[in-house]
Amino acid sequence: MSTETKCNPDLVRERAKCTFDVNELINLFYGSEKATKERRHFEDAVLAVKELKDAIPEEYLSHKERYENGVRKATILRDVYRDYKAKHNRDPPPNQITKAVIKDISPFLLHNGMFVPTIAGQGTPEQQAEWLPKAESMQIIGTYAQTELGHGSFIRGLETIATYDPKTEEFVLNNPTLTSFKWWPGGLGSTVNHCVVVAQLYINGKSHGIHPFIAQIRDLDTHKPLPGVKVGEIGPKMGFQTANNGFLGFDNFRIPRKNMLMKNAQVLKDGTFVKGINEKLTYGTMVMVRVGIVGDCSFYAALAATIAVRYSAVRHQSHIKASEPEAQILDYLTQQHKLFIAVASSHVYRNAYLWMEKMYTNVMKELSQDKQDNLPELHATACCLKAVCSRDAGSLVEECRLACGGHGYMASSNLPLTYGVTIAAVTYEGERTVLLLQTARYLMKAWMAALKGKVLSPSVSYLLNSLKESKKPWQNTPEGIVKGFQHVSFGKVKAAYETIQKYMKQGKDYEDAWNLASVQLVKASEAHSRAILCEVSWEAVCSSSASPNLSRVLQQLAQLYLTYWTLETSGDLLLYSNITKDDLIILRDKYEELLVAIRPNAVGLVDGFDLRDEILNSTLGSYDGRVYERLMEEALKSPLNQETVNSSFHKYLKPMMEKAKL
Ligand SMILES: CC(C)(COP(=O)(O)OP(=O)(O)OC[C@H]1O[C@@H](n2cnc3c(N)ncnc32)[C@H](O)[C@@H]1OP(=O)(O)O)[C@@H](O)C(=O)NCCC(=O)NCCSC(=O)/C=C/CC(=O)O
Ligand SMILES: Cc1cc2nc3c(=O)[nH]c(=O)nc-3n(C[C@H](O)[C@H](O)[C@H](O)COP(=O)(O)OP(=O)(O)OC[C@H]3O[C@@H](n4cnc5c(N)ncnc54)[C@H](O)[C@@H]3O)c2cc1C
């Protein structure tokens, strides 16, 4: 990081005000002092590679150049990872340095994030032995090709067909319609030579549902599509420009029988289909990635908050009091209201991610012993937390962007790109509403079990408690607020269930009643997520090992999150809990007190995310606060500023002006 001496004086003053040890926060956030050291060491190693530095900002490159530059850097980055592993005999520590290098999304994202994990999670030991070493060493490059032009959410409706031919012991892949073409997979456009293809399995004319197959689609030497493969790139998007999303269709393309990933279901040589213990295990990679997305949301909220808080400390505009100099915009309570929730939410998502990761690891361990009891809870929880955190994180990033005024609209602030990337997670890996409805299915089942007095899984056990206990008077404490959110969830789950029952009594069948109640069902899932986020994050803060100085600030942040959402959803709380108008007024005042209490530590808190300038990649957010200098330096990089007079003057403007004289 830059030295204090070169810093903008406002930031120096802000840092001097901080009441806790920033290094302690960094170590707590990333797990330990050792983890911080290792992460920084790895980031240093990456940033020392000269070839990874861009000559001009990516925005000035064409679509094609941007992709090619992305691949170039992704391959260099991959070498750094390999060298680290060879030297240290372990993978590099978790880090976000790809953001400093690729800036947008790596064309290898799907290779590392879904191709390799699907082989590991869905392949037999023999299949793993065949493909994992090649994939991990990048002898082959892959993606996860599931979504099609016609179907993304409803994967049982996928149209890609894999027909087993017992004579040759091969599967024949076909995309019989335009809508059956794979559409979206990252890296598919021009990068990968292999993919996991999710296709409908047919044996002797009988359908056996969707399964994952490994297909080599390009020649390893020439990179040309193999005969029977039609593949290409889908074009520019709102973000993900360097992710190289592509399309793919097969025409009687044959792959050997061993290319069906058979850890779960199997096809024997003679065409006998052997069912797996649970067909939903085929969806396993998606569950893993949804858990990871909660962690990504923490990162994106931290990144946007760091940029916007530092900028707000440096930016002066207008007066709070006419007699005083222009105020730092961070001193306006409205600005604190916009920004501190992003800081607080990043911590909440981080704690929720760590909690989910534990649940995921436990369930995976249980599944390896053929125990599936906790899989539905994992699926339901990953669905709703992914859905709620990604939507909230997108809104927080956008709010941070807006909070930077006009400069937040500059690409060089990195907030527009960050918004494009963050908001994509609302859709990919399961569209928000669709995932919330998955959780609602689970909540309805849990509710029916609660009505029968059955024991419920831990994440929904509050439904049973709320059913048994009479509603207690509201308590304006963090624990009281957590209970309040559980009451809201309880109330919404109950109301959605009763709405379904009402429609069924009116003669509707269950599916129609479900559709008619689905707005309520989605709201019930959201409320359930909020209750989890509040409970998990408050418990994490209470049990943390932080020093008293840091603990005080972390508790303030957690309380800010709880109070913010109490005020945002006060209507729900008035409907479903014993909160009163007076309680809400007390909490409104408390919320304002929290903003004021957090204000002196705002810069220290974002320094505590330890995101270096290269990762922030922002004119507004750098550690030294040289905002105006950087804005000008970046503007001067525009190709339009490399010439005094642009040729369009002679071609168009001058003739127009001369015509106008006639
Ligand atoms: C919406 C889905 C889950 C519906 O699937 P479907 O087979 O139609 O299931 P049902 O709705 O009928 O539910 C049956 C039953 O199964 C349970 N279940 C569903 N999924 C899982 C699961 N993963 N694990 C465990 N159990 C599961 C469900 O709860 C039901 O249980 P009941 O007891 O109530 O009967 C499905 O179609 C789906 O997942 N859709 C989303 C598609 C998606 O996420 N695609 C991602 C593509 S890859 C991508 O986007 C990559 C992005 C880039 C990046 O990551 O960076
Ligand atoms: C940036 C990005 C990267 C991606 N990368 C990949 C990849 O690498 N590999 C891959 O396979 N896929 C990828 N995808 C595809 C992604 O997984 C799908 O777009 C996603 O699952 C949503 O599916 P859909 O597009 O079919 O949306 P749709 O399902 O068509 O959604 C459209 C609308 O219909 C509603 N809707 C749909 N079904 C229901 C229902 N049952 N009940 C109520 N409402 C419903 C939705 O709520 C939404 O409002 C990517 C997508 C994006 C944006």
Automatic annotation (TrEMBL):
<comment type="similarity">
    <text>Belongs to the acyl-CoA oxidase family.</text>
</comment>
<dbReference type="InterPro" id="IPR036250">
    <property type="entry name" value="AcylCo_DH-like_C"/>
</dbReference>
<keyword id="KW-0285">Flavoprotein</keyword>
<feature type="domain" description="Acyl-coenzyme A oxidase N-terminal">
    <location>
        <begin position="21"/>
        <end position="141"/>
    </location>
</feature>
<dbReference type="InterPro" id="IPR012258">
    <property type="entry name" value="Acyl-CoA_oxidase"/>
</dbReference>
<dbReference type="InterPro" id="IPR055060">
    <property type="entry name" value="ACOX_C_alpha1"/>
</dbReference>
<dbReference type="InterPro" id="IPR002655">
    <property type="entry name" value="Acyl-CoA_oxidase_C"/>
</dbReference>
<dbReference type="InterPro" id="IPR046373">
    <property type="entry name" value="Acyl-CoA_Oxase/DH_mid-dom_sf"/>
</dbReference>
<dbReference type="InterPro" id="IPR009100">
    <property type="entry name" value="AcylCoA_DH/oxidase_NM_dom_sf"/>
</dbReference>
<feature type="domain" description="Acyl-CoA oxidase C-alpha1">
    <location>
        <begin position="283"/>
        <end position="444"/>
    </location>
</feature>
<dbReference type="Pfam" id="PF22924">
    <property type="entry name" value="ACOX_C_alpha1"/>
</dbReference>
<dbReference type="InterPro" id="IPR037069">
    <property type="entry name" value="AcylCoA_DH/ox_N_sf"/>
</dbReference>
<keyword id="KW-0560">Oxidoreductase</keyword>
<dbReference type="Pfam" id="PF01756">
    <property type="entry name" value="ACOX"/>
</dbReference>
<keyword id="KW-0443">Lipid metabolism</keyword>
<dbReference type="InterPro" id="IPR029320">
    <property type="entry name" value="Acyl-CoA_ox_N"/>
</dbReference>
<comment type="pathway">
    <text>Lipid metabolism; peroxisomal fatty acid beta-oxidation.</text>
</comment>
<keyword id="KW-0276">Fatty acid metabolism</keyword>
<keyword id="KW-0576">Peroxisome</keyword>
<feature type="domain" description="Acyl-CoA oxidase C-terminal">
    <location>
        <begin position="478"/>
        <end position="658"/>
    </location>
</feature>
<protein>
    <recommendedName>
        <fullName>Acyl-coenzyme A oxidase</fullName>
    </recommendedName>
</protein>
<keyword id="KW-0274">FAD</keyword>
<dbReference type="Pfam" id="PF14749">
    <property type="entry name" value="Acyl-CoA_ox_N"/>
</dbReference>
